Amino acid sequence: TSPGSIYYCEAVVSTQSTGVPNSPISPYDIKHIVEFLVDEGDFFEIMPDYAKNIVVGFARMNGETVGIVGNQPLVAAGCLDINASVKGARFVRFCDSFNIPLIILEDVPGFLPGTQQEHGGIIKHGAKLLYALAEATVPKLTVITRKAYGGAYVVMNSKHIRADVNYAWPSSEIAVMGSKGAVAIICRGDPDLEKREQEYIDTFANPFPTAKKGFVDDVIMPRDTRKRLCADLKWLRNKSQKNPWKKHGNIPL
User: Fold this and answer.
1) pLDDT per residue over 169-181, tens digit each?
2) Which residues, at least 6 apart from 20, have a Cβ–Cβ distance to it below 8 Å?
């Protein structure tokens, strides 16, 4: 079967090996995930040497052009900082301008902490990416590959900002923060923090509590991701969404 058909989508992903480590703190290259998903493994990255903790670029899914935005765990653990937010926002606005669907690959532990980021205006610049994704009216699909923590989870095309479809892999964790930090706050003074942390992991460190609340559409196996994304893009091809009328928005500049 030739590229550009839904049958090709089913055939191309025959392996479960995606390169995502079992350990939540082990790095991996998000570009391997992109190549695992797109037509012919062909990804045209934009601005590869700037803000390397986020990856943006163009590819094809089932023969159609799409824009890819992904957190890069190899650099700063994939945290969003000022430069990454601006880079991502600029790319999202470009895709929305030319009606190019967006696929977001999410593995984000939060916004990068530190006084340098705060003095540089991380809240203002981080809001640019939030604004760009919230305002975009093109098809917007999200796949959570591992971590989705805190405010950065909301920013990376969550259901809270009008994402069309959100998937999570079984390896994903959707929470305010990591289990270790959460248990240190919730169970402060408990003599057996390791046991409490394991209980927290068993209960919350998975995508199912979020799926029950409707913020994740489905928990899917990595091998099914490409097929599901291709089908969703076909379904959303004629998507028509309009923002409330006004002269223009007030993006945080």
Assistant:
1) 998 999 988 888 8
2) 28, 33, 145, 146, 169, 171, 222
